[in-house]
Write a structure and sequence with these properties.
The complex is a heterodimer of chains A (about 240) and B (about 90). Chain A has one domain (about 5-235): Class I glutamine amidotransferase (GATase) domain (Rossmann fold). Helix content of chain A is about 25%, strand content about 25%. Chain A has helices at about 15-25, 70-80, 90-95, 150-160, 215-235; strands at about 5-10, 30-35, 45-50, 80-85, 100-105, 110-120, 135-140, 145-150, 165-170, 185-190, 195-200. In chain A, the strands form 2 sheets. Chain A has a 9-stranded mixed β-sheet, with helices on both faces. Chain A has a two-stranded antiparallel sheet with strand order 5-8. The longest helix of chain A is centred in the last third of the chain and has 20 residues, at about 215-235. With about 90 residues, chain B is of the alpha+beta class. Classes of the chains: A alpha/beta (about 240), B alpha+beta (about 90). The interface between A and B is medium-sized, with 22 and 13 residues.
């Protein structure tokens, strides 16, 4: 059965169409959810796509988190549903308190648009992205992607194994020269303690079509589909 | 009554403020070489209708905690500027 994936469109979302296309290419069934509707359409998983929801006014994600659809997304996540937030979607999840930390202006103060490498972390965590260490090539395109948290929160994020991806050199070594935006500990993605909410700054939806370049996004969508499938089976007692 | 508030939002002290740093680095170029710290924040001007200033201030504090600032990264100063006319 194809996983049914709701992709939320906010005013100012940009990557919703690419996310829908990526879901289709990866073998899922995308459905479009609208910010003003308090509904995630019986989806098996939810994607909050990149863009500049509500113009990034006040702070990136600060206004989107109050959109009616976010009540449904929060309830879905609290019930164990799988939610993937990409770029602006990650910022929204942090603002909504579904993920720890926050994203501030890149340390370079410039908008960054380029391919980077990340490596998967904490492979033994429940619902980890991969069971071993993988290096993925993905694009970033953001002005506010520097992940920060208070020292206590950062200790908890590391101690509880909530780091899902870290920026790295092409061979997987950690080196601040390959940390594009100054994120603390090179953090590119974090997960919730239960493992069902994942936020990431790189864009997997732009890296799924081999005709267009690297396909580091496959691993992320496979994670979303397979994890959502496991959760579905558990819920139905099958 | 109407009350006017200045809400000042800035990044917490422990956090690197990239904008403040960029401004600080530019100042010596312009001849000011004695600036030891710069933080860049946001200024929000609010006019609130309420029965008294205490009620209005409580409401603005709540707005700041839940929406105007992100407590993970920012701190807030709230000042009652004056009673707005009308």
């Amino acid at each position: 059965m194809k996983p049914r994936v709701a992709v939320v469109t906010f005013p100012g979302s940009l990557d919703d169409a690419d996310a829908m296309r990526a879901v289709t290419l990866m073998g899922g069934e995308p459905v479009s959810a609208w910010h003003a509707d308090g509904d995630v359409l019986d989806a098996d998983a939810v994607v909050l796509p990149g863009g500049f929801s509500y113009g990034d006014y006040l702070r990136a994600g600060a206004i989107a988190r109050f959109a009616p659809v976010m009540d449904a997304v929060s309830a879905f996540a609290r019930a164990g549903g799988f939610v993937l937030g990409i770029c602006n979607g990650f910022q929204i999840l942090c603002e909504a308190g579904l993920l720890p930390g926050a994203l501030i202006r890149n340390r370079s103060l410039t908008f960054l648009c380029r391919w980077i490498h990340v490596r998967t972390e904490n492979p033994s965590a429940r619902f980890s992205i991969s069971s071993g260490r993988e290096i993925l090539q993905l694009p970033i395109k953001h002005g506010e992607g520097q992940f920060v948290a208070s020292p206590d929160a950062l200790d908890r994020i590391e101690g509880d194994g909530l780091v899902a991806l870290r920026y790295c050199a092409p061979d997987g070594t950690l080196d601040d020269r390959y940390n594009p935006n100054g994120s603390l500990h090179g953090i590119a993605a974090v997960r919730s303690p239960e493992g069902n909410v994942l936020g990431m700054m790189p864009h997997p939806e732009h890296a799924v079509d081999p005709d267009l370049g690297p396909t580091g996004g496959h691993q992320i969508f496979q994670w979303l589909f397979s994890s959502a499938g496991v959760a579905m089976l558990a819920a139905t007692g099958a | 009554m109407r009350f006017r508030f200045d809400v000042l939002v800035s990044l917490k002290d422990g956090l690197l403020d990239p904008q403040g740093k960029a401004v600080q680095q530019a100042l010596p170029v312009l001849g000011w070489d004695n600036v030891t710290d710069v933080r860049v924040g946001k200024y929000i001007d609010l006019v609130v209708d309420a029965d008294d200033s205490g009620i209005a201030l409580d409401q603005v504090r709540d707005m700041a905690d839940r929406f105007l600032a992100n407590p993970v990264i920012e701190e807030v100063q709230i000042e009652l500027r004056k009673e707005a006319s009308g």
